[in-house]
Amino acid sequence: MRKPFVAGNWKMNTDSHTSVSLAEAVASGSSDIAEQVHIAVIPPFVYIPAVVKAVSNARIAVGAQDVYYEQKGAFTGEISSSMLKDIGCTYALCGHSERRHVIGETDELVNKKVGAAISGGLLPILCVGELIEQRKASQTEQVVTKQIKNGLQGLSAGKVSAVTIAYEPVWAIGTGLTATPQQAQEVHALIRKLIGEMYDSQLAGEIRILYGGSVKPSNAAELMAQADIDGLLVGGASLKADDFVSIIQAAA
Ligand code: PEP
Fold first, then answer.
1. pLDDT tens series, the chain, 252 aa
2. Is 168 a known active-site residue?
3. The pTM of the whole model exceeds 0.70
4. Distance 229 CA to ligand 1 centre (A)
5. CA-to-CA distance for 143 and 129, rounded, in angstroms?
6. Are 215 and 223 within 8 A, CB to CB?
7. Which atom of ligand 1 is nearest to the CA of 234?
């Protein structure tokens, strides 16, 4: 039985004051349903310690928006999984669409990050998804399959059991356009089948697959009603505590 999982990616938003007030508002708003759903907030790196403190009495995990693949050394500006673990992080996004398409991260880099996140004791959230041109050219299956095969390259089933996959069609992120529940379910089912082929049916049945892309209180329930959608990765709507709590309620 896969427990629903809702994560809020704050991207490069909030400040030292609003990161804490948002975290506190999510904690108090979700306290009565937090046993039924895994909840994570993913603030900018610099606010992680304050947010960890703000949710320390709540059933809310904290994640990082990225992680580097080495553990320490001369890598100016980078942050390792062991450092993130040390300050109280549980999750790390790997290969978020904005890192792939704005910063230029490749599947190979994302694969190293997924492996390093696991080695450092974090639970990676591997993000995949197609561009609009790729969907229009009927390449969604091919693109997502490649991103997953490359992203998990060399990782054993034991390691992949720590991974959550987030299917986030690039054309739906921050655009207000959401995949229909049927479009999302189709890709989620494909991903689960692929995990079964790459590993085994037990892992395929257990791995959590989140949908992300303009999730809002008004569409969360119909997305969560799909058989292979186990949770939601929420960007914009996670910056408003009331909206994010409504989405958590829909998932619970
Ligand atoms: C995201 O940042 O992963 C995301 C899905 O953003 P939004 O919900 O704003 O589309």
1. 799 999 999 999 999 999 999 999 999 999 999 899 999 999 999 999 999 999 999 999 999 999 999 999 999 999 999 999 999 999 999 999 999 999 999 999 999 999 999 999 999 999 999 999 999 999 999 999 999 999 999 999 999 999 999 999 999 999 988 899 999 999 999 999 999 999 999 999 999 999 999 999 999 999 999 999 999 999 999 999 999 999 999 999
2. yes
3. yes
4. 16
5. 7
6. yes
7. 8
Using the mean position of ligand 1's atoms as its centre, give its distance from the Cα of residue 88 in Å.
23
* Pocket, ligand 1, Cβ cutoff 6 A: 9, 11, 168, 173-174, 212-215, 233-237
Beta bridge partners of 140: none
Give yes or no: 96 in active site. Answer: yes
Residue ranges per structural domain of the chain: 5-251
Amino acid at 34: A
Q: What are phi and psi of 93, to 5 degrees?
A: -70, 140
- Of 98, 105, 130, 168, the catalytic one is 168
Could you tell me the CATH superfamily of domain 5-251?
Answer: Aldolase class I (3.20.20.70)
Q: Using the mean position of ligand 1's atoms as its centre, give its distance from the Cα of residue 3 in Å.
A: 21
Q: Which atom of ligand 1 is nearest to the CA of 237?
A: 8
Structure tokens at 107: 């599947």
What's the token pair of residue 148?
A: 């997953």
Please give the number of the atom of ligand 1 that sits closest to the Cα of 212: 5
**What is the pLDDT at residue 177?**
87
Give the pLDDT score at 1: 77
